[in-house]
Fold this sequence. Notes:
Layout: H1 9-37, H2 58-82, H3 91-123
Amino acid sequence: MARPRILQPWLLEAALRGLEQNRQSLEAQMAQVRSLMAPRGGPAPVRAAAKPKRTISAAGRQRIAAAQRQRWAVLKQAKKASAPKKRRLSAEGRKNIIEATKKRWAAFRAKKAAQQAKAAAKKA
Length: 124
């Protein structure tokens, strides 16, 4: 507000009264808006002043990153240790499986040959 050259008391008092009326009307309007925002039957929530945003130094970030890497290393090591070892097939086990498979195929072929021989005997 620009300052008048001549400061007369009656002018200053009139200005003060006008500003007071403006303030009262603004406060009434603000109360009305707050009542609209408030939940039914309750007072309007009062917001706390926002805290300034915090920053962290580069050294602090490095310490945090190092600690996180260490935590991950411990987790990976524990996971590796707890993983079940792969089972390996022994040479004797492999030999037994091969023999059993050959025996099954031999039985299958013998049965098929018997069926074909029987079918051929029926036709003849």
